[in-house]
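Researcher: Please predict.
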Amino acid sequence: MYRLTLCLFAISLLWIGTTQAQTTAQVQPATADKILEAIRNSNAAVKVVNIWATWCIPCVEEFPYFVKLAQTLGPDKVAVFFVSADFDDDVASVRAFLAQQGAAFSFLKQGSDDVFVRAFSPQWTGALPATFLYDASGRLRDFWEGKTTYEDLVKRVEALL
């Protein structure tokens, strides 16, 4: 009986912690223009935009690399902007994923896919994940589709520092 009580107590603590983390992770709906404005307003030397979705396996696999990059280089050197391509009714899943990854914030893509894609780059096919690197002045300097490695991500960012 003691083990069952202890197990139930541990599960309830885990549930409470998960619920609290989910409520602290922020998801802000935004159009491409709003996101690009946030990039221009950032004071970081390099701005990284990672467009991802909870249902995209390569996105989920590479997500920790961006969190680690931001933690390692710090906010003066790099600002990472996460943009979820999930649907509006998936916000709870997005918050839960962010909390699990230790990320506090993500934009949530709004507007038509075609307009959104073209606002970021005419070369972007709309495939996920997609990553965009901007310099200190907010100019697009690098872009790729598909999953990256942590080493390649660091190399590309350091090339702009």
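Model: The helical segments are 2-24, 32-41, 57-73, 91-101, 113-120, 150-158.
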